[in-house]
Amino acid sequence: MSEFTPTVTGTGARARVQRFGGFLAGMIMPNIGAFIAWGLITALFIQTGWTPVPQLGGFGEMSDGTPWPGLVGPIIKYLLPILIAYTGGRMVHGQRGAVIGAVAVMGVIVATDVPQFLGAMIVGPLAAWVLKQFDKLVDGRIKSGFEMLVNNFSLGIIGGAMGVLAFFGLAPVTTAITNVFGGAVGFLVDRGLLPLASIIIEPAKVLFLNNAINQGILTPLGGTQVQEAGKSILFMLESNPGPGLGILLAYLFFGPRAIRPSAPAAIIVHFFGGIHEIYFPYVLMKPILLVAAVLGGATGIATFALFNVGLVGPASPGSIIAYTLVAARGDLLPIYLGILLSAAVSFVVSSLLMGFGRKENREARAEDTAAQEQALADAQAATAANKATSKGTAAPTA
Question: Which letter, b or e, does each residue of 82-95 get, where b requires 16 or more Cβ atoms within 10 Å of its Cβ?
Fold first, then answer.
């Protein structure tokens, strides 16, 4: 388990959910620096970024007419899922598990155009578990001198098989999950139940299906509305930075002490850079915070609908700056209000679910008390030693 996800004890349903969320977070939190790097590159260099560069942002064409590959696409499609699968495999079976996890995840990565964070969190630990069972089976049964041969070939054979199975078996499942979430959002949009869309959108975002929902469903529907009405609220259903901002602020003030220092950078990347993926690991670490995300998102959508506001185009990336640039004329202040209220609701609910840091404060006070008691004991021992020395006798030993 990662240093960011302390071990949860207990056997109840809540403990099991916490352990599961901690395991998922344990795969992602150690790689948060890679997410920040990708977020900064994306916010800066994509075509709608602040300093667009075709060679880095992955838009435009090279001299031979082929598209620029850039950094943004390969990082999110290949590097980040591989890192997640590698870390998940390592958590299950050490270095061998890490390697087989990285191999197996390639099967699900190349099977679809959707970034396979969900697939990586499944196939990485699964492949490592299968290899672990094989290693247990042959433990002590390999003749001396053949250990390296068996270890290498077993990893290669099982890893290749798991990659093929991921391609044909897991990729259709993750694609189906994406289609289910997308269809549910479309159902709510068609019936005007927009605030309820957060029940689908926010959990889907945390599973890294945000791009599929936003670009695959909401953006095309929003484009149609813009042609008819000149603006669309649909561009704001998924891209609202308010719910994520509230969760990150709650972590900053009331989260585990080991994680609080990472929150300010995440807030900047999320709110000003528009890279929402940066806060997903924080929710995975404490899945109950999905409640805060849903309520915050629903509050924002309800506010936008109440004032009948919209954007004239997609907010890409979903930052406060992008919102300012594509807000419909006269709608900017109500849009700011919706973002502010969604962040406030998300922050309050997250803080409540975290107990306003009371557990952390109790643990800190216990640590401080223990440290003070130890300091007192050390001072008493030093005093006794000094006293014994002044009398020319040996200091007592503990």
Answer: bbbbbbbbbbbbee
pLDDT in tens, 136-195: 999 888 888 888 999 999 999 999 999 999 999 998 988 787 677 667 766 776 777 888
Angle at 109 between CA 103 and CA 113, to 5 degrees: 170
Contact status, residue 344 vs residue 249, Cβ threshold 8 Å: no
Specify whether the CB–CB gap between 189 and 200 falls below 8 A. no
Locate 35 and state its tokens.
């997410």
Cβ–Cβ < 8 Å for 286, 207? no
Burial of 139 from C-beta contacts in 10 A (0-12 / 13-18 / 19+): exposed
Q: Whole-angstrom Cα distance, residue 194 to residue 189?
A: 6
Compute how many other C-beta atoms are within 10 angstroms of the C-beta atom of residue 2: 17
Q: What is the pTM of this model?
A: 0.63
Backbone φ and ψ of 195, nearest 5°? -60, -35
Burial of 31 (0-12, 13-18, 19+ CB in 10 A): middle
Cα 49 from Cα 212, distance rounded (Å): 20
The DSSP output letter for 78 is I
The residues with which 311 forms a beta bridge, in sequence order, are 232, 327
> pLDDT digit string (tens) for 206-234?
877 776 677 667 776 776 677 677 788 88
Q: In Å, how far are 43, 69, 79, 204, 235 from 52, measured between CA atoms?
A: 9, 14, 22, 29, 22
Instruction: Give the side-chain half-sphere CA count within 13 A for 196.
Output: 10
Residue boundaries of the structural domains of the chain: 356-385
